[in-house]
Amino acid sequence: MFSSLSLLLLLHICSLTVSSLALPFEQRGFWDFAMDGNGGDLTSVMMRDEEGSGMEEELPPDVPLCPFGCHCQLHVVQCSDLSLTVVPKEIPKDTKLLDLQNNRITELKENDFKGLANLYALSLVNNKISKVHPKAFTPLLHLKKLYFSRNLLTVVPRNLPPSLVELRIHENRIKTVPEGTFSRLGSMNCIEMGGNPIQNSGFEPGAFKGLKLNYLRISEAKLTGIPKDLPDSLHELHLDSNQIQAIELEDLKRYKHLHRLGLGHNHIRMIENGSLSYVQNLRELHLDNNRLTRVPKGLPEMKYLQVVYLHSNNISQVDVNDFCPRGFGIKRSFYNGISLYGNPVYYWEVQPATFRCVTDRLAIQFGNYKK
Ligand SMILES: *[C@@H]1O[C@H](CO)[C@@H](O)[C@H](O)[C@H]1NC(C)=O
Ligand SMILES: *[C@@H]1O[C@H](CO)[C@@H](O)[C@H](O)[C@H]1NC(C)=O
Question: Which parts of the chain span the membrane according to its record (predicted)?
Fold first, then answer.
């Protein structure tokens, strides 16, 4: 039972974070099982599984296929850190998790994933891939998670599997997302594409057409404004560490469902009055490390806003009605986090009533401003 438990655990961890795939992976049991004459319950289950699963005919049924140097256990094939320059051959057809991270693969070819219709998660993180054959992903009928970060792609590959739910393509060299890149990807939920040198003009009109994303991160890129054409279904949008200068009136108009908006570490000086009125569902707003001179207008009207980061700006004045509604009887969630440190404003100059709709004093991070 140990092995099936550890597989479950692995599947579960992988669904949370890709770096867990880099954990030392202890080969345990599979060969022992296979060679253990009397076999346990698990062995017989696995043997039954393998019948008719497309194994090469000429192999004796009790010798499992596993690419040279890789670890294969149950449905997990682990080939990380092997200096591979190509995707290995003879990957078992029933593989669910294929880990190829930390190798030197340069290209994905047409037949690299042939027959892997059961693959659920594929990690190609930290290779040197710059070329993907347009049909490379065609066999992957059930792929849900594709981890492609830290490669040399200059464009998001075309023809991603329609079953895809999560794409991580962080830290490549992507400068363009052509129109239709994500068409037919109706299940996609989450894209992480930060750390690419992409500018606003790199997103062709219609680049995100058809996507119903919840989560999108394009941090550490070269954006100078909030992209206008992102999916309107977004709950979370992270655009931190770009070069965004301002938020203009209509910039957020499309993103009515946003719960979290990350705009820290940009160059924002100006947030146009009224622009925040479009994001009435916001819970969390990060505007730290910008060049704001005032608390943005519209915060008191945002009924659900609970966390607002404004630290490390150039705010020299905080007014009594900047955060909370005037008068009583206006329903609003209490804030549980407001950060204002690193601004040229002294806390003793701010009226205590300014924070009348904050859970408690500890929720306000002020610090002592030092010039
Ligand atoms: C924004 O509103 C404030 C008062 O709510 C006003 O003082 C300021 O001039 C307005 N700014 C613009 C650009 O309309
Ligand atoms: C901070 O704001 C003041 C005006 O309130 C301006 O004179 C100063 O140049 C600003 N500093 C920075 C670093 O932007």
Answer: none
Tell me, in angstroms, the distance from the centre of ligand 2 to residue 269's CA: 10
- Comparing CA positions, the residue from 327, 282, 290, 328 lying closest to residue 308 is 282
Residue 293 CA: distances (Å) to CA of 10, 57, 101: 48, 72, 45
- Does ligand 2 have an atom closer than 6 angstroms to the CB of 294? no
Residue 165 in any domain: the answer is: no
Q: What is the pLDDT of residues 341-368, one digit of tens each?
A: 999 998 888 999 999 999 888 888 887 5
Query: Does residue 297 have its Cβ closer than 6 Å to ligand 1?
Result: yes
Closest CA to 110 of 147, 89, 87, 137: 137
Q: For 118-175, how does the pLDDT look when each residue is reduced to its tens digit (9 = 90+)?
A: 999 999 999 999 999 999 999 999 999 999 999 999 999 989 999 999 999 999 999 9
Q: By C-alpha distance, which of 100, 189, 185, 87 is closest to 149?
A: 100
Q: Does residue 210 lie in a domain region?
A: no
Closest residue (by CA) to atom 12 of ligand 1? 273
> What distance in angstroms lies between residue 249's CA and the mean position of ligand 1's atoms?
12
Ligand 2 touching residue 209 (CB < 6 A): no
pLDDT value of position 302: 94
Q: From 267, 269, 293, give the residue whose CB has the most ligand 2 atoms within 8 Å, as the site to mutate.
A: 293
Using the structure block, give the residue that is written with the tokens 């999916």: 231
Tell me, what amino acid is at 126?
N
User: Over 90: is that where the pLDDT of 44 sits?
Assistant: no
Question: 30 alpha carbon to ligand 1 midpoint, in Å?
Answer: 68
**What domain count does the chain have?**
1
CA of 115 to the centre of ligand 1 (A): 62
In a domain, 66, yes or no: yes
Q: Which CATH number fits the domain that encloses residue 71?
A: 3.80.10.10
Residue 117 belongs to some domain of the structure? yes
Ligand 1 centroid – CA 273 distance (Å): 6
Segments forming the whole domain that contains residue 115? 1-152
